[in-house]
Amino acid sequence: MQIALTFDNLGEAADLERGLWPGDAPLGRHPSVTVALPRLLDELDGLGLRATFCVEALNCELYPDAVRGIAARGHEVAMHAWRHEAWGDLDPAREDDLLGRGRAAFAALGVDGVVGFRPPGGALTAASPRLLARHGFTWCSPLGARRERAAVSPARPAPTIATSAVRVRRRAWRAGAAAACSASMASSAAAAAAAATNSRRVKVVSVTARQCTGSA
User: Fold this and answer.
1) At 86, phi and psi to the nearest 5?
2) Domain coordinates of the chain in residue numbers?
């Protein structure tokens, strides 16, 4: 039996991308990072749990100490786009640029081993498997735990995806402006799928997840 514990989104990145962040609001002070994240990391330490944090790479600039701290405490850091872009809508050139920019940002912090990727919105593009492999990613977690949910149109082919082993549920609570995430998980028999991309392979792991914020 395998259980995966993952957390998506950090700070104001998604709001910036969606145009929801007030123009006069300061950056780098989001309570999900300054208040909730330290409490969450302490709780995970107390329970002896390790998780994967899917983080927008912009946070390497806004919250470098927080990103380093996640890795330093034994958790995996994965990339969740640059600024929470709607990944399935990107053209190949833009996708290639954001992947390279993100990898470079994590490397500049000394956060090694960022080889996982979760696309905001859950969708990949036809170019994603090739580009992910090119930039050194070895696993990807798009939306969809069942074959039918992973189906794509002929115009946007995807690698074969096996039924997922993992289901993750999240709920959120808010205290003023601060939000923290508590995860409870239900697991089934483990399964994974591999996608051939040129001479390299990117493992595609499907995960059913409800974001802490209520959106992907």
Assistant:
1) -70, 95
2) 6-208
